[in-house]
Amino acid sequence: MTDNLVHLKDVLVRAKAEICKVIIGQEWVVEQALIVVYTGSHALIEGVPGVAKTLLVRTMAQVLGCDFSRIQFTPDLMPADVTGTGVFNLQRNEFALIRGPIFTQFLLADEINRAPAKTQSALLQAMQERAVTIDRETHALSPNFTVFATQNPIEYEGTYPLPEAQKDRFMLKIVMDCPEREEELVLAKRTLGADAPEAILARGDVQPVLRSESLIELRRELERVVVRDELVGYVVDVVRATRQQEAVLAGGGPRATQSLLLASRAHAAISGRDFVTPDDVKRMARPVLEHRLVLRPEFEVEGSTTSEVTERILEGVAVPR
Predict the structure, then answer these.
(1) Residue 171: which of 101, 104, 267, 297 has the closest Cα?
(2) Taking the alpha carbons of 28, 30, 31, 37 in that order, is the dihedral positive or negative?
(3) What is the pLDDT of residues 87-97, one digit of tens each?
(4) What number of other Cβ atoms are within 10 A of residue 174's Cβ?
(5) From the candidate CATH numbers 2.40.50.100, 3.40.30.10, 3.40.50.300, 3.50.50.60, the one assigned to the domain spanning 14-218
(6) Is 62 within 8 Å of 30 (Cβ atoms)?
């Protein structure tokens, strides 16, 4: 490995170690979250209440030296509450911009599916262009602007499902399950003392591993990870197979191909390699593709899931040697 890639791996390992001081037993989740940040993408986090979705994003912001804002999405939330608005200043006789919480680096869109489509759409331009238009004037956001949107997988009353166009803008869907018994036992014991996860974060025991400005340089270092032409073709074939699977009504588009390539390359870097293997692609296929697949109603009635369909697609595509 080159010196640059050794540095990248070192930063990734230290960042993961610091985050895991607070987040107990979610190593794969932490890795996926780091992949999202280091590829300059966005993530949809799905999990029941209490599995530390918000805490994960707050901790990552502190470890990576980034600003953090949180928006609690509700049915009465308006787009201007997200982006900000112009307010007339009587003394200066002009409008002044009051910036909304979207002007940050790490944005937690908490329970995003509780807001109507009009408010959800306030994030579309920001996620795609890292810019926001207010009163016909476009304002640039931070190059590190990252959206982590959470949703509850079991509570659908009073929710507004995300449209496919918006889900496609999320690189990964990160599923946070409840911890194993041993991990939950560790959490319970720490809660009784001074080492509760929230207390550790509040005390500042989690150390930043870099400054936010360094993230741009680290993303450039990812470009040194080699992706062979055969593996590029493998990724394309996997995504194209989602459009030909009989159980799938709508498969992954070109953005899914780009996301799977970038995620596989970042996974190789986290694993300490300067080249991508088919296993990297297989590992990242589910979090990249699952939320993009729309199953045909008759297959949903039979109990098919996007996870099972993704596995069948991977089994049916020839792996390059």
Answers:
(1) 267
(2) positive
(3) 877 777 777 88
(4) 26
(5) 3.40.50.300
(6) no
Per-residue pLDDT of 95-122, as tens digits, reads: 788 899 999 999 999 999 899 888 888 8
pLDDT at 218 (0 to 100): 85
Q: What is the DSSP letter of 100?
A: -
Structural fold of domain 225-316: Helicase, Ruva Protein; domain 3 (1.10.8)
Cα-based distances in Å from 70 to 20, 82, 204, 245? 21, 10, 19, 38
Q: How many CB atoms lie within 10 A of CB 294?
A: 14
Contact criterion met (CB below 8 Å) for 148 and 34: no
69 within 8 A of 57, measured Cβ to Cβ? no
Task: Indicate the range of 71-80, 203-212, 281-290 predicted with least confidence.
Answer: 203-212
Q: Tokens standing for 84?
A: 């900000």
pTM beyond cutoff 0.85? yes
